[in-house]
Design brief:
The complex is a heterodimer of chains A (about 300) and B (about 300). Chain A contains 14 helices and 3 strands. With about 300 residues, chain A is mainly alpha-helical. Chain A has one domain: MetI-like (MetI-like fold), CATH 1.10.3720. In chain A, strands 2-3 form a two-stranded antiparallel sheet. Chain A starts with a strand and ends in a 7-residue tail after the last helix. Chain B is mostly helical and about 300 residues long. Chain B folds into 2 domains: about 50 residues, no CATH class; about 230 residues, MetI-like fold (Orthogonal Bundle). In chain B, about 75% of the residues lie in helices and about 0% in strands. Chain B has 14 helices and 1 strand. The longest helix of chain B is centred in the first third of the chain and has 34 residues. The radius of gyration of chain B is 26 Å and the shape is globular. Chain B starts with 6 loop residues before the first helix and ends with a helix. The chains are: A mainly alpha (about 300), B mainly alpha (about 300). Chains A and B meet through β1, α1, α3, α4 and α5 of A and α3, α5, β1, α6 and α7 of B. β1 of chain A pairs parallel with β1 of chain B, so a sheet runs across the interface.
Chain lengths: ~300, ~300
């Protein structure tokens, strides 16, 4: 690797376009928002930067505190479910015959290439009152003659509640969890598992005391990769949760569109940013403590 | 006389199904793991496959299969605002792909080739658009372009006025969205290209220079051919990311500059209907074809290398 001093011209030609773009069209907008979060609204559109903390104080209002709390636990639940589902999936792929592995991995990743909005829309068609799921349930209801004993089938309301949002988030972000898990389980030295089983540990004991600790870097990466987009999600709670499951993302959107309170929206989005930085710092800390912590 | 093995062990199908003869580490053969994997695939794909199938269904209610039809594709095609949005999306994706591939490649080459003070901080900075929540970037872009527009709109003559007028013409009217897309696409391109360059033998570059080639010649004839598969993969990634983006576009688009996902969003809020299925199917096909082409284009280049 060259020192940049060896060929300053080439260095600057390569460095300038990307740095320029990221500073002007990313860092400057974020800085404006950051300053705005310490400002006050004047009139319809103007914002005075007064250095006030009022916007941040406003988030401790019980209404918003409840939404923050709800966003945190919905994201936590979705991340935990992703982990519980993705771990066996990644494990199964790694221990499948070698020629099947790329195909299985591709099958899990492929839906991720499809538009987020379209996947969410597909879920609405499944879960809505007269959707495919209720239709199937009704079919089985009639098949088992329950309608002649219990009464006609009442369709379930699957949509517009917290459960729908959690399901949607798991459905949409699962591939994010499988990838880092796959990468660490693949590198796992299988002789450790053999040794554990040979020495008399049960399969379950081996999983808890050997496999999970050895694959911890992948687990941590996966949790962060899923938790951050879940916490900041806007589309999934908007379409699947409706008015009953509002998350931070929806409040932010409202401040910038309908409610037109930019400083408060800016403070909320910076709360999200601080949470993101906290999660990333935590990962760096864990990776540093864990010697084989080659996080993805 | 031979002792017959139990039927379970003789039939490959039954052996596969019952996981007979399995070793303790043969997790891949465990029945419950296979069933679980199958169930997950079903859960992942059934909503998308029903969405595609029911775009051909001859029923407005869209729950029961009533027969094959293409009429909802005609409905979607005749919906001019939907087609306009689609054309906007493609124009943005093409412009964003070209620019972000070039910028991403320069960043990747710079990080691959040079040591400089503060390099790890710079790398972290480059990764920021990938890691921060999309909605934060979306609202930041909204405020930035609103401010920029106000400032430019305050001029009534002079170069900035004309510059501002220029940006009201299609496809330049899409530039706010395109600029935001480039800002989150090119770091992805840089990651992909840099991963490709990690496999490059630096001695090739040194010998090229020893033999008297200039920087440009070395780049053109040694580095660029090696980099090409990474460039194509990065470009297609940028194309699909831009085409698919909803959240950031939602905040940077105006009433005149609607993209396909933003249009579909406004339709979806009104409920499920077969013409949305048809339009979505078209987008799914385009994205999947782009990713398959990427794989196809990469395959021969990989074979040549080895």
């Amino acid at each position: 690797m060259d020192s940049w001093k060896h060929n300053r011209l080439v260095f600057w030609v390569l460095a300038l376009p990307g740095t320029f773009w990221l500073v002007v069209f990313f860092l400057v907008p974020l800085t404006i928002i950051w300053f705005m979060s310490f400002g006050e609204k004047v009139g319809l559109l103007d914002v005075n930067i007064t250095g006030t903390l009022a916007n941040y104080w406003r988030t401790t209002d019980p209404v918003y505190l409840l939404i923050l709390w709800k966003s945190a636990w919905i994201s936590t639940l979705a991340t935990a479910l992703c982990l519980l589902i993705a771990y066996p999936v990644a494990f199964g792929i790694c221990f499948a015959p070698a020629r099947w592995r790329p195909v299985m991995l591709l099958l899990i990743i492929l839906p991720f290439w499809i538009n987020l909005l379209i996947r969410t829309y597909a879920l609405i068609a499944v879960f809505r009152t007269y959707g495919y799921l209720n239709y199937t349930l009704e079919f089985f209801w009639k098949l088992t003659l329950l309608d002649s004993f219990v009464g006609p089938f009442q369709p379930f309301e699957f949509l517009y509640n917290n459960g729908a949002v959690v399901t949607g988030l798991v459905y949409v972000y699962m591939p994010f969890m499988v990838l880092p898990l796959y990468a660490t389980i693949e590198r796992l030295d299988r002789s450790y598992l053999e040794a554990s089983l040979d020495l008399g540990a049960s399969q379950f004991r081996t999983l808890i005391s050997v496999t999970v600790p050895l694959t911890m870097p992948g687990i941590v990466s996966g949790i962060i990769l899923v938790f951050i987009p879940c916490l900041g999600s806007f589309l999934t709670p908007d379409l699947l949760g409706g008015a009953n499951a509002v998350m931070i993302g929806n409040v932010i959107e409202r401040q910038f569109k309908a409610a037109n309170d930019w400083p408060f929206g800016a403070a909320l989005s910076f709360l999200l940013m601080y949470a993101t930085f906290g999660a990333l710092a935590l990962r760096a800390l864990l990776a540093g403590r864990n010697k084989q912590g080659m996080a993805i | 006389m031979s002792i017959e093995a139990p039927l379970v062990h003789r039939s490959p199908v039954l052996r596969w199904l019952t996981s007979a003869n399995q070793q303790p580490l043969d997790y891949g053969r465990r029945l419950w793991l296979k069933v679980f994997f199958g169930f997950i695939l079903f859960a992942l794909y059934s909503p998308i496959l029903t969405l595609i199938a029911f775009s051909f269904n001859d029923s407005k209610r869209n729950v029961v299969w009533k027969g094959f039809t293409l009429k909802y594709y005609a409905v979607a095609w005749n919906n001019s605002s939907l087609v306009d949005a689609f054309v906007n999306s493609l124009a943005i994706a093409v412009m964003a792909t070209v620019v972000s591939t070039v910028i991403g490649a320069t960043v990747a080459l710079m990080l691959w080739r040079f040591r400089f003070p503060g390099k790890s901080a710079y790398e972290g900075f480059m990764a920021l658009p990938i890691v921060i929540p999309e909605i934060c970037m979306g609202v930041a872009m909204l405020v930035f372009f609103a401010r920029l527009g106000n400032w430019m709109g305050s001029f009534h003559s002079g170069p900035i006025f004309w510059w501002h007028q220029l940006f009201s013409i299609w496809p330049l009217s899409l530039s706010a969205i395109t600029i935001s897309h480039i800002a989150f696409c090119f770091p992805f391109v840089a990651v992909v290209v840099r991963a490709r360059m990690a496999g490059f033998n630096r001695e090739l570059e040194e010998s090229s220079k020893d033999l008297g080639a200039t920087e440009w010649q070395t780049f053109r004839h040694i580095i660029l051919p090696f980099m090409q598969p990474g460039l194509i993969a990065g470009a297609l990634l940028a194309f699909t990311l831009s085409l698919d983006d909803f959240v950031i576009t939602f905040f940077t688009s105006g009433p005149e500059t609607v993209t396909f996902p933003v249009k579909v969003y406004s339709l979806v809020r009104r409920g499920v209907s077969p013409d949305i299925n048809a339009a979505s199917t078209a987008l799914i096909v385009i994205t999947l074809v782009a990713s398959l082409v990427a794989m196809k284009l990469q395959a021969p280049a990989k074979a040549k290398k080895s």
